Amino acid sequence: MKIAMLARNANLYSHKRLKQAAEERGHSLDILNTTRCTVHIASHRPEVYYNGEPCIGYDAVIPRIGASITNYGLAILRQFEMRGCWPLNESVAIGRSRDKLRSMQILAKHGLGLPLTAYANDPKQAEEIIKAVKGPPVVIKLLEGTQGIGVVLAETMSSAKSVIEAFRGANVNILVQEFIKEAGGTDIRALVVGGKVVATMKRTGAADDFRSNLHRGGSAELIKITPAERSTAVSAAKRMGLNVCGVDMLRSNHGPVIMEVNSSPGLEGIENATGKDIAGMIIDFMASKAKEGKTKTKGTG
Fold first, then answer.
1. pTM recorded for the entire structure
2. Is 84 found in the same domain as 11?
């Protein structure tokens, strides 16, 4: 199998591990800098070029598209899909997951556990949406933030209103969510591959940070999850239409609540915490499923 990976940094742990796992299994994997890809659009001849040369002969594509180039990356991925190249995660599903509001709406529609969430355009409604999520305290998030960037904990009504008004004054879209105090600064990452939870870890934030992202100095350890948490993770992946994803959950007093479904989960933390060959599992899944022309929009929304 000949695989293309859309990724800007070939030296990241996750990208090197996927390439290693593919080559160990007899496949070839080329890492293509997404920003150096171009699309040529013509009737019946959807073409992708890389550094001026046509991208041909690929059986499958692994999208590892950075949040800062989501729209461009999805355009490139769609072109691969139009050529009949099988994607690990499809463009429509990735687009859903990158839009926090849309993903929350889809998950809520299907009855999955979520923190109380509010969204408004007018900064004059700040107090109304804070009360709607039973705050303060509240968590305020950028709609397109990643790795804990653009996430603020506001502990008082005045500070929450100030943050909301500042973001909206800068014309930045945000969500306001209830603060799950009982989670104690920890969350659960469940890694789903092909509709199964293959690895789980508990992430704990740094001593002075309520966010548990490993990129922000948090730590990770192996954890056994409950049947309800496992079911929630699998259902979230299915409803988003993602073959591979990281589902981030908090343990609340009323069961697991989903914070985010990540379509390009990092592998370093979870492989180190669990000792599992996650990259190998992903490549094996691809080898069993990748068939030319079998791209279709999955999930709902």
1. 0.86
2. yes
Verify that 200 and 236 share a domain, yes or no: yes
Pair type for strands 138-142 and 151-154: antiparallel
Q: Per residue of the chain (301 residues), give pLDDT as tens.
A: 999 999 999 999 999 999 999 999 999 999 999 999 999 887 677 889 999 999 989 999 999 999 889 999 999 999 999 888 999 999 999 999 998 889 999 999 999 999 999 987 777 788 898 999 998 899 998 876 555 567 889 999 999 989 888 888 788 888 899 999 888 888 999 999 999 999 999 988 765 555 555 555 567 889 999 999 999 999 999 999 999 999 999 999 989 999 999 999 999 999 999 999 999 999 999 999 987 556 554 434 4
What does the alpha-carbon distance between residue 149 and residue 218 come to, in Å, rounded to a whole number? 14
Domain that holds residue 128: 117-179
Tokens of 130: 């804070």
Tell me how many domains the chain contains. Answer: 3
